[in-house]
């Protein structure tokens, strides 16, 4: 079974983002970038499925600037077989990303797409659901456990008050939650091998997708500074402050 894993290049999760001085966006110059953590979990799950003999080929896909090749090489070092970069200097919105992935699915004909539930740079949590809608495929979102059997997948996901298990028919889209697994570190030999694995570069136009933005960012600003809290001696004092000072009750 062929499996496709989209991966996104984002600001490393250990870096505190800074807003540009003109408020036009987040500063990326000189900032450490890495693979979106949820996508890293998706790659790990794909590799585990291959190690179990369920998956025969893993294709890592990224959409973005030339430097996104580094993110794809990381996926290749973890165990992906080959990679595709859809090269663009634009920042495609979720619908454009979903349309590009739809075109790649039609080109590569995988039976399963595993991807992070969201990217940590915009937290939109939309692409997987849009891709499932465009393809008309089943979807299992926020997966914390995946079991693949003949022609179907059992996806366990967290819901309010417990766990929900879905049976979905392949082909399908599954988005990964944090609890799905713990990604492996790529070994040095695998990093060296990844340099020789095939990496194809395409343009959005070759896939027939227009990545022109439909949204306009008006302003980006830092969140307001949080005020320090206080301790109260009793419930009565707490109620009094909520009523007299905060005026919320």
UniProtKB/TrEMBL annotation:
Molecular function via GO: electron transfer activity
Cofactor(s) this protein requires: AMP
Record-given protein name: Electron transfer flavoprotein subunit beta
Gene3D superfamilies referenced in this protein's UniProt entry, alphabetically: HUPs
Domain of life: Bacteria
InterPro entries in UniProt: ET-Flavoprotein_bsu_CS, ETF_a/b_N, ETF_b, ETF_beta_N, Rossmann-like_a/b/a_fold
Keyword Cell wall biogenesis/degradation on entry: no
Keyword Transport carried by entry: yes
Assembly: Heterodimer of an alpha and a beta subunit.
Keywords: Electron transport, Transport
Domain Electron transfer flavoprotein alpha/beta-subunit N-terminal intervals: 23-211
Similarity field: Belongs to the ETF beta-subunit/FixA family.
Native species: Lichenicola cladoniae
Free-text function comment from the UniProt entry: The electron transfer flavoprotein serves as a specific electron acceptor for other dehydrogenases. It transfers the electrons to the main respiratory chain via ETF-ubiquinone oxidoreductase (ETF dehydrogenase).
Record-level GO BP terms: carboxylic acid catabolic process
Signal peptide range in chain numbering: none
